[in-house]
């Protein structure tokens, strides 16, 4: 293992023996596994490494601290230093179709749920589009950012944040919950991150199989938060009660309120009481 300092990023890394050309999809996810002591955002860092041709498929960037962690819809992801799982994974998606973008997001969410289900036996769901929930409390989230060049979907950066040992959350995050709060035990975030790499490897391989995206979507809908339940959703200035039916292949939430509705990500707000 080699320690370096690059542009104020504190880094430990294991050299990857694979060349950058012709071997991308053969690389095991987590090779190399880069431990960043502090970084603005693991997603930003991963994308910079990709654009500089310093990293390829399978490279993982794990951070103790993010100074500008990124969440969905431009929201900031807050996390106590060294307490949580904060990582980004580079994925070569050239074998997938542009229409598989939501399936990739679902696959990563399922992989994260696969990891947590080892420690949490029940009540683990995925809240559309890709938040991890235990009961009605958020345990983690995922942010996928894509590199599309000349109309070709070449790479994706999968950012994953899971609350591990943190027990105090700010007012905005008061619906959050950590693995420690659920299990009563402390868990080393870096060890869980390496286990998560294995889960992502399995789910990514599943996605590449024939009918893989359909199978992933089917499993995703089986563990969908509030599936078949009545919930209040706010669409613009109008709030109404809908029954959650599932999520479509393109990633739209399907819900019924007298008639069937399809909502795109970012178009509605969940109103969860309590």
Describe this entry's structure for a reader.
The chain is α+β, with helices and mostly antiparallel strands. The protein folds into 2 domains: 221 residues, BirA Bifunctional Protein, domain 2 (2-Layer Sandwich); 42 residues. Helices cover 24% and strands 34% of the residues. The chain has 5 helices and 14 strands. Strands 1-2-3-4-5-9-8-7-6 form a 9-stranded mixed sheet, sandwiched between helices. A 5-stranded antiparallel sheet has the order 13-12-11-10-14. Helix 2 packs across helix 4, helix 2 crosses helix 5 and helix 4 packs across helix 5. The longest helix has 20 residues. 38% of the residues are buried.
Shape verdict: globular
Total helical elements? 5
Kindly state the mean pLDDT as a whole number?
A: 89
- Characterize the quaternary organization of these chains: single chain
What's the level 1 CATH class of the largest domain?
Alpha Beta
* Number of spatially distinct domains: 2
Major sheet: arrangement of strands: 1-2-3-4-5-9-8-7-6
Q: Report the structural category.
A: alpha+beta
Terminal CA distance reads: 48 Å
Number of strands: 14
- Please describe the biggest sheet, giving its number of strands, its sense, and whether it closes into a barrel: 9 strands, mixed
